[in-house]
Amino acid sequence: MPILTRRSAALWALLGAVPFVLLRGRGRLRAVAVEGDSMLPALRPGDWLLVRVGGRVAAGDVVVARHPERPGLLVVKRAAYRADTGWWLESDNQRAPGRSDSWDFGAVPDTLVVGRVVARYWPPSRARRRIDTSGTLGGQPAGMPGRPAQRSQR
Fold it and tell me: How many CB atoms neighbour CB 111 within 10 A?
């Protein structure tokens, strides 16, 4: 029988707790995998997130929403500000190949916002309850050079 180290024991405890957390009655949670580089450095491809479905969103939160032009596609973005027509959602890494956010499709109606990210649970080395909400990328504002200058200034 293999010997469990503290780290592997913590990992198995975490993995065993995930189904329990997903089924708790304090609001529905959904697991979502991150693909692509548009949310670097806060989120990386292969990260797994817990999303509180219908959770209250505030500026700076990382959220999951349905793409307005492709409703079958979920996007993970940062809520920049609340516009009259919905949430303005931005990628942290504006230079990511293939990134798509409100600069491309406009504000996202509330009905398309699935919920707020409450934790990253995988991989274990990056698991944490709080995702960076500073909206910074290497000490710079989330808006990268090369995008319009009027970024999130509302």
Answer: 8
Concatenated DSSP letters for 24-49? Answer: -SSS-EEEEE--SSTTTTTS-TT-EE
Q: Using one digit for the tens of pLDDT, what is the confidence trace for 38-75?
A: 999 889 999 999 999 998 999 999 999 999 999 899 99
Residue 106 pLDDT: 96
Specify the DSSP element, H or E, that contains 18: helix 6-23
Tokens 């303005």 sit on residue = 88
Q: Check: CB of residue 54 under 8 Å from CB of residue 28.
A: yes
Give kind and range of the element (H or E) at residue 105.
Answer: helix 102-105
Angle at 102 between CA 47 and CA 33, to 5 degrees: 15
Q: What are phi and psi of 17, to 5 degrees?
A: -80, -25
Tell me: cis bond preceding 41? Omega within 30 of 0 counts. yes
Picking from 43, 105, 120, 118, the residue whose alpha carbon sits closest to that of residue 73 is: 105
